[in-house]
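Field: sequence (string)
Field: structure_tokens (string)

Example rows 1 and 2, in order.
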Amino acid sequence: MSNAGRTRIREHPVLGPLAEAPECTIIVDSQPLTARVGEPVLAALLANGIHVVRRSEKRNEPRGLFCGIGLCTDCMVTVNGLPNTRSCVTLVEPGMVIGTRKVEP
């Protein structure tokens, strides 16, 4: 997926300004995507056009970026097999395997 016309988060409310970093590949729902080493996982997802990372259990409503500082649970994903990981404060590492929970029943 092309990143043309998409912006990246350059400053995080908790982590502060993000320095330029080399690009790497992460795997999201079995698809390789380009990310920047050290940026929040959610920033990489947004930069690749992924806005919904899970759906609410009761109403199947889409969830993604809400607080952006790790206080809510709207951006929970599975990272390298670890479920319930807050993607807004988890930093990208090369080769990460990320699973969203956005599948509709």
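Row 2 begins here:
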Amino acid sequence: MQRRIFQFAILLLWMSLPLVAVQYTQVWGQLPVRVATHFNAANEANGWMTRVEAVRFAVGFMAFLLTVFTGILLYIARVRVDAFAWVLLGFCAVVLGVMVEVSRSIVNYNLHGVPLELGAVLIAVPIAVILLIAVYVAFKREPALPSHEPLASELLVEETHSGRVCGLVMLIGVFGPVTALALVPAPAIRWPMVAVGLIMLGAAAMAWSGFHYRFLQHGVEIRTLGFRLRSIPRQSIVSYSIEPWSLVRGYGIRGVGNSRAYVWGNKVIHIKTSNGDVFLGHNDPQRIVRDLDRVMSH
């Protein structure tokens, strides 16, 4: 039953497609021959299309987003519809709602010369991204490991895997949004830049602090900035081995489905579990193997 409701909610997302088309067609005769469709940071038009090209682009882009979102949502919900699936659905709805509002604002500009005031609308996207990531991590981290003894006796060893070079690169990247705040007067650009800057600062802090691996008698916990990202129960560990990791596969928290990686370098320990694969990055992978041996010996 819940899956049918979820599928119906996905179908409702497609209502945004005719809504965008109607925004243009209901005022077709009033639109100028050349429609302003692109604007600079000062909200001044600097790109134009014909009416036909404008509506084709707007509808085509919405159709593209809807196709991608529908595929992702159906894939996520193929087994069961959990809380994260609904949050992801809400994220897709926010993005589509923003695009509908952008389209409406462009039509109003071409009809009445009303400046685009999209600051409050555009900032919804990075905020939604933050919430989506937070919910995803919270719901996909597995239950906390059982503890039958005081924590001090449960903990065998703790290791840290940081990416300070990546953190510095991200910190330097913050200068882009900061420069935009100083030079761009349009609120439509400034507020999203604030959100982007905060996201990059958070990512830099996470990379600098690194991933903290807590090897306990009952398994392994992976944390960052004091937040538990994942628990790996000892009984679910099937095997583990050292493997190389390439830049192409990316750094940070990576992976979809039942595969997850926590990596800031080019060496990992591949842990095969009964629930999927986990990759732990570390400069001295042999040490992590010894720590895992200690966990498995209990």
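free_text_note (row 2): The domain at 151-296 is CATH 2.30.29 (PH-domain like).
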